[in-house]
Each structure stands twice: as C-alpha cells, then as structure tokens.
Design goal:
With about 250 residues, the protein is an all-alpha fold. It has one domain. It has 10 helices and no strands. The longest helix has about 35 residues. The protein starts with a helix and ends with a helix. About 50% of the residues are buried. The model has no long low-confidence stretch (mean pLDDT about 85).
Length: about 250
C-alpha cells in the first residue's frame, strides 16, 4: 500500500464512518474506493467489513443517549442480527468467489437505489407516526425475521444495510427517527462484528487496509454522532451515488 493509497483509504473510511452513523450505506464509499485502487472485490469486501467494526462501535457510543430504555428491545433483536450475519458471511465464503464478483454489481446497484429512496422512506414513516397510524407493536416475530434477513444481506455484502434496518425498524417501532437510528447502529455493529469474526477465522484479510479504515471510520463516526444533524443529507447522498456509480463502471 502506497502512502497515497493509504491517505485515500483513510479519508474514505472517515466518510464511511460519518455516513454510517447518521444514515447508513458508508460501505458505498470504502468498497468502491478499494476496488478503484485495484483490490479484488472479495478481498475488498472482507477487509472493508472488518475495518468498519471500530467505526460501528464508535457510532454506538456516540448515540448512547438515544439507546436509553431500549435494552430489552435490543436483547430480542441482537440474536436475529447475529444469526443473519453468520449466515450471510458463511454464504460469502462458501460460494465460489466468481459468484460474488458477478452478484456484487447488482448489490451495488440495489444499494444505490436504496440510498436515493432513503429520504422518501423516512418521510413516509414520519408521516405515519405524525398521523398516529403506526401503533406500538415493538418486537414481533415478523420484525425479528426481517432483522435476520437484513443480517444475511449485511453479512454477505453490507452496503446500505443501515438504510434497510432503518426502514424495517421504522415500520414496527413507534419511536423517533433518532432513537431508531441508535438501535440501527447497534444492530449494524453486531452484523459487522459477527461477520468479521467469520472472515478473520476463515479467509485472507488485508490488515493494512483494515487498520487504515478502522482509524478513519472511528474518527468519522464521532463526527457523525456530534455533527450529523447539521450535515447536508443531500450532499452526503450525492457523494455516495457518485462513488457508487464509479464502482459500477469499474466492476462492469
């Protein structure tokens, strides 16, 4: 890894940590950056996932106030995320690597669609809560099943899993978006951590990439937790879309 590459990856990690904390989909910054720098897609995905774990932990700490009173809820949702992550990461490593090389193009495209659709989803959920049409159903088997499915997606690829979780939790939980975001950060941390354990134990990892992304994402997560509400969400989403489209062109 050259010094220039390290600086690029560091700033990509900072951007990903910031974005993951306040909305999700930060991997659409780091993963395409690694691919553009010449890293094979599978190695880039694995190393990126592990590197983002400290950033996810930093984001959870930054949103600790929003987690007050949610411990019982999380105790019922965390196992679903963990099991889903173990399933998704195992699928990633047991299927032939060329399967991921082919599928990742579609996964990036889906993630970009979710990024663009994110504001619309948030507005509709907020409107439902304002109208009083969302009842307090909290943790149901249906929610646990959807969190499990999101964990599979996150364990296999990860980009935009935060947006998926925000949408799922917003449908079932009668909470403010900030408290839902705090819950989302915990579940995303669990997914990334479980997948990281699987990857470290079973496959090759570029530890230089992991270290640089870890530093960047940890710093970025604190920026997101402290200043996230002041950042222009349109600018963040535009950045994600531009980088994601660049990755699609490179992958295709």
């Amino acid at each position: 890894m050259s010094l220039t590459d390290a600086i690029i990856i560091l700033f990509a990690g900072m951007a990903a940590g910031t974005i993951n904390t306040i909305v999700g989909s930060g991997s659409l910054i780091t993963f395409p950056t690694l691919v553009a720098l010449g890293y094979p897609p599978l190695l880039a995905n694995v190393s990126n996932n592990i590197g983002l774990v400290p950033g996810s932990l930093s984001g959870v700490y930054g949103y600790r106030r929003e987690l007050n009173g949610q411990s019982a809820r999380l105790r019922r949702l965390v196992p679903a995320s963990a099991l889903g992550a173990a399933t998704g990461s195992t699928l990633l490593l047991t299927l032939p690597s060329d399967v991921f090389d082919r599928v990742v193009v579609f996964l990036v495209a889906i993630a970009l669609v979710l990024v663009v659709a994110g504001p619309t989803i948030s507005r509709k959920l907020a409107a439902r809560r304002a109208a009083g049409s969302t009842q307090h159903r909290d943790v149901t088997p249906g929610l646990q099943a959807l969190v499990f499915a999101a964990g599979i997606y996150g364990g296999y690829f990860g980009a935009a899993q935060g947006i998926i979780l925000m949408a799922v939790l917003g449908i079932f939980l009668n909470e403010t978006l900030q408290r839902i975001n705090g819950c989302k950060n915990v579940l995303a941390l669990i997914v990334n951590a479980v997948a990281a354990v699987v990857f470290v134990a079973t496959t090759n990892v570029d530890w230089k990439v992991v270290g640089v992304i870890a530093v960047g994402s940890t710093i970025g997560a604190q920026i997101g937790a402290r200043y996230g509400r002041r950042l222009n969400p349109r600018a963040l989403r535009a950045l994600i879309v531009v980088v994601g489209l660049t990755a699609l062109i490179r992958l295709i």
